[in-house]
Amino acid sequence: MTLPDKPIIAVWKPKGPTSFRVIHELRKITGITKIGHAGTLDPLAEGILIIGLGREGTRQLNDPAFKEKEYEATVKLGETSATDDGEGPTEKQEVKDIPDISKVEQVIKKYIGQINQIPPPYSALKVKGKTAYALARKGKVLNLPARPVEIKNIELQDYTWPFLKIKVVTGPGVYIRSLARDIGRELGTGGYLTKLIRTRVGTYTRREAEEIVIPFTAKNKKEEAPQE
Question: Which domains can be identified in the chain, with CATH numbers?
Answer without folding.
Answer: 8-66+202-209 (no CATH), 69-201 (3.30.2350.10)
